Amino acid sequence: xxxxxxxxxxxxxxxxxxxxxSYALRLPFYDMDKEIVKQQGMSxxxxxxxxxxxxxxxxxxxxxxxxRDEACIISTGGGAAMRQENRExxxxxxxxxFLDAPFEDIYKRIKNDANRPIAQRSTKKxxxxxxxxxxxxxxxxAHIRVFTRNRNIRQIVNYIVFQVNRxxxx
Length: 170
Ligand SMILES: Nc1ncnc2c1ncn2[C@@H]1O[C@H](COP(=O)(O)OP(=O)(O)OP(=O)(O)O)[C@@H](O)[C@H]1O
Ligand SMILES: O=C(O)C1=C[C@@H](O)[C@@H](O)[C@H](O)C1
Ligand SMILES: [Mg+2]
Prior knowledge:
Layout: E1 3-7, H1 14-25, E2 29-31, H2 32-40, H3 44-51, H4 53-66, E3 72-75, H5 84-93, E4 94-100, H6 103-110, H7 117-121, H8 124-141, E5 144-147, H9 153-169
Parallel strand pairs: 1-3, 1-4, 2-3, 4-5
The structure holds adenosine-5'-triphosphate, (3R,4S,5R)-3,4,5-trihydroxycyclohex-1-ENE-1-carboxylic acid (SKM) and magnesium ion.
């Protein structure tokens, strides 16, 4: 149990929180989306366009399966917790936090971002539906849920540090 995984919908703060958490806990930080982009030499919209979403999902599972045994923080892609296999790998190899942000916060953050193909191709209503559909999978994946409403990144990081230290002490 030496990894810390952050899961949740696009824009919930996984990358931003993961980066700050890595300073707070002095652990290396990996952003799954960025690692896949590096490996493939293509952006996420390019991977989706050229090979389709299913292929990207397989790359996510390969990443989780093959990632070295190292204490670190991993911010996952927004869809990574949808597969049971991925959830099992994360729960087995680490502590999983679900960053639970309200849809309105999320929508404000993602609506204009060209780097998120799913946000690009969906209407607000469709994204909202996807948000509610996915929640149960994030909850299933996570050991701990973090409510982010009205909390800034520093407060969220402090809460996760508190939980990690509490569990280490057990
Ligand atoms: N609690 C917060 N308060 C204010 N801004 C936030 C908060 N959480 C995230 N943000 C901002 O929202 C934007 C989206 O966050 P981020 O990129 O970390 O999301 P993500 O969960 O990694 O999304 P994706 O799944 O698409 O990779 C960033 O600009 C980030 O700084
Ligand atoms: O929610 C999703 O399905 C995604 C979220 C991003 O992190 C990327 O992994 C990609 O844009 C897909
Ligand atoms: Mg991210």
